[in-house]
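Supplementary notes for students who missed Thursday's class. We covered one full example, reproduced here. Read the sequence, then the structure, then the short commentary at the end.
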Amino acid sequence: MPMIADSELNPAAVEIGSFFPQSPDTIWRALTDPDLLERWMMRPTGFAASVGTQFIFAIPTQPTGEIACEVLAARPGEQLKFSWVDLRAEDPARWIVDWMLHPQGRGTRLLLTQTGFDIEDRRQKMARDALERGWKVTLSRLRDVFDES
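Structure (token representation):
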């Protein structure tokens, strides 16, 4: 099933739903195991799936960028939510990335929502649009990780 972008529901949010044939526990592991995260998203430093944990994602660019995060919610097999601050930005915005897992048949519907964008601000609207494209690529890499195993 293709990924569905529902940006018209909330233009100030990135919302992408995708179905995976794997169980919610398997998807949860991919969201919370640093070695798996590195394979499809970015390498986290200091990450643990517990509320209040502050960690950094290293952006594989030259020079390396960093995204500062804090876990806001962690319900195994159901939800992982964290703040997201791109430290490369002159005036970094604080966005929220929320992963919701819903059992569906023998698989899982994964819903990614990223919120906190001020779409009246041209740079933030451009960032929102770029992140939506980037998340679609990232989710296809997640699918590839499962296909490889």
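Commentary. The longest helix spans residues 122-148. DSSP finds three helices and eight strands in the chain. If anything here is unclear, bring it to office hours.
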